[in-house]
């Protein structure tokens, strides 16, 4: 039997999450986040598709996802994955970038994978400090130095936005989905809204965004669901509020994208300490 351990911590000092997945085989479908992800592979070998580029990940590789970077991954060697990451909301990233650079902007990292990076070591140390709930400023110092190096070596100040802007039709579709995600949206509606045929809409949207319109919709719903769960709203209510057809569909898709069930994720934020939550799953 494979023993899975999924540990999630919200650090109130640093104001971001730390994830640790041990012994997992889970495949993550194509999706994106509305926050930054900085992580590294401890053990295992994975196939990653990010921004329509393929990568083979091994132990010691660092991964960086900007908000809205579409990505999917799965095991390719039959062995389990050990993985750690930190998830940083854009408003928090903006604060840190302003602290480091003196400039108020959101960075866009130019590399999604740093192969065999020396940064995996300080990232591991930072992650462990967060899991151990260290309260002194050593972890903040370490993070600021780590982020400063990432900003200096893997961003370009002139590329604050993606190089290729979506066309006006795709922007209209994205805006509509983001406003009406809780409703039953049909492909016919999106076709009429954009003036594109359904087939051409699907092809153009997927090419420009790196993700299909329906997967974009589901990911938007999950991002909103996380915020509601963080407020302690029960999963059955969240499923209804975010447009999922039923709680089962919501639970299954949430776990496929986040790696935790909605209830497990909610417990991180509603327990008395409000600091740490650890889940162990055996299958």
From TrEMBL:
**Highest taxon, organism lineage:** Bacteria
Segments forming domain HTH araC/xylS-type: 171-268
Q: Known CDD domains for this protein?
A: cupin_YbfI-like_N
Q: Which UniProt keywords apply?
A: DNA-binding, Transcription, Transcription regulation
Q: What InterPro entries does the record point to?
A: AraC-bd, AraC_XylS_family_regulators, Homeodomain-like_sf, HTH-like, HTH_AraC, RmlC-like_jellyroll, Tscrpt_reg_AraC-type_HTH
Matching entries from PANTHER family are given as: HTH-TYPE TRANSCRIPTIONAL ACTIVATOR RHAS-RELATED, TRANSCRIPTIONAL REGULATORY PROTEIN
Q: What is this protein called?
A: AraC family transcriptional regulator
